[in-house]
């Protein structure tokens, strides 16, 4: 080993020259280790199929973000009317089952009043009977039956009647000559004014000099 400055012989491992004092370490050559080359994997090159079109015939389409609105979808598809697919369907109205009211149930049952003169009237609800039946100010009736009585034995508003459920009732309206009820198989009775009497079909009712039957 020799000092490169003064060419003096140096022992192995010396760091400084004993003659000139030069540093031996700065002049020593540092071996350079070259990395061994790495073999690249072989790539198999195959020829393109004969039936594929040339590369220049392909067109590159830039990527687009997907659109989710119905309007944009319709715009992208030309010639196809898809508006019906995105319209809000009309609300469906479902009617609740309807039950008959009390008055409608009452009207399903009817009775027939036949006067002694042969005239008959079908009744389904409440009403008045007399020479000139007139309701009070706070009253409403569906039937007003006018009877002819030249002798005036019948009051202007002689009887009131009504249908409740499957039954018919009558009531004397404070008449002058009163009302007698004659039910089949029952002793005749005089009606008390303002009292409701349920009568059956086949009943005869005398009012003044006239009468009627219920069927």
From TrEMBL:
Show which residues constitute the signal peptide: none
Provide the FHA domain boundaries.
127-186
What the entry lists under InterPro entries is as follows: FHA_dom, SMAD_FHA_dom_sf
The superkingdom listed in its UniProt entry is Bacteria
Keywords annotated in UniProt: Phosphoprotein
Show the ranges annotated as biased composition (Polar residues). 57-68
Region Disordered: list its residue ranges: 49-68
Q: Which Pfam families match?
A: FHA (PF00498)
Indicate what this protein is called per its UniProt record: FHA domain-containing protein
- The organism named in the record is Aurantimicrobium photophilum
């Amino acid at each position: 080993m020799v000092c490169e400055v003064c060419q003096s012989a140096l022992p192995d491992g010396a760091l400084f020259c004993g003659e000139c004092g030069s540093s031996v370490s700065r002049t020593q050559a540092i071996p350079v280790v070259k990395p061994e080359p790495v073999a690249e994997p072989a790539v198999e090159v195959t020829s393109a199929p004969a039936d594929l079109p040339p590369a220049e015939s392909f067109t590159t389409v830039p990527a687009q973000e997907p659109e989710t609105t119905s309007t944009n979808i319709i715009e992208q598809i030309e010639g196809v009317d898809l508006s019906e697919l995105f319209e809000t369907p009309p609300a469906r109205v479902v009617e609740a089952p309807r039950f008959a009211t009390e008055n409608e149930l009452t009207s399903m049952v009817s009775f027939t009043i036949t006067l002694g003169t042969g005239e008959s009237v079908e009744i389904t609800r409440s009403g008045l009977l007399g020479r000139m039946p007139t309701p009070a100010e706070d009253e409403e009736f569906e039937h007003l039956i006018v009877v002819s009585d030249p002798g005036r034995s019948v009051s202007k508003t002689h009887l009131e009647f009504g249908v409740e459920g499957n039954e018919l009732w009558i009531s004397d309206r404070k008449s002058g000559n009163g009302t007698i009820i004659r039910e089949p198989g029952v002793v005749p009775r005089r009606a008390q004014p303002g009292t409701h009497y349920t009568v059956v079909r086949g009943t005869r009712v005398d009012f003044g000099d006239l009468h009627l039957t219920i069927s």
